TrEMBL record:
<feature type="domain" description="ChsH2 rubredoxin-like zinc ribbon">
    <location>
        <begin position="17"/>
        <end position="49"/>
    </location>
</feature>
<protein>
    <submittedName>
        <fullName>OB-fold domain-containing protein</fullName>
    </submittedName>
</protein>
<dbReference type="Pfam" id="PF12172">
    <property type="entry name" value="zf-ChsH2"/>
</dbReference>
<dbReference type="InterPro" id="IPR052513">
    <property type="entry name" value="Thioester_dehydratase-like"/>
</dbReference>
<dbReference type="InterPro" id="IPR022002">
    <property type="entry name" value="ChsH2_Znr"/>
</dbReference>
<dbReference type="Pfam" id="PF01796">
    <property type="entry name" value="OB_ChsH2_C"/>
</dbReference>
<dbReference type="InterPro" id="IPR002878">
    <property type="entry name" value="ChsH2_C"/>
</dbReference>
<feature type="domain" description="ChsH2 C-terminal OB-fold">
    <location>
        <begin position="56"/>
        <end position="115"/>
    </location>
</feature>
<dbReference type="InterPro" id="IPR012340">
    <property type="entry name" value="NA-bd_OB-fold"/>
</dbReference>
Amino acid sequence: MNLPDVPPADDVTADWWDATREHRLTVQACTQCDHVQHPPRAVCTACSSMDHLTLRDASGAGVVDASTVVHRAPRPDVEVPYTVARVRLAEGPILLTRLTGGNDWTIGDAVAVGWVDLPDGRALPVFHRTDG
């Protein structure tokens, strides 16, 4: 898999990226209202709290919510075709990600997280099919 351009960590996402170094998928949780969200933000999208946000380990299980197969490479060094999908995690949030293991996906397919290591030590979550 060709590696995409990945943004640098910032004050809001640094802890999330640090967890990926250990191949741990996390979601952001608000301890004030118990809302769970992804990607990490500076504010809870449910109650607007800025002071009660923490990261919580996620199971890595989810289902395909929507997907598309990309046939035209965004850069000359990217191999096509590949599948981009919205994966709804068991914890609720949606992750935009790549699916591995073919391009014949359907909505509702059960998936689990896998990892693609980046040269800087971080890792990208990708998802593969499970038996459900």
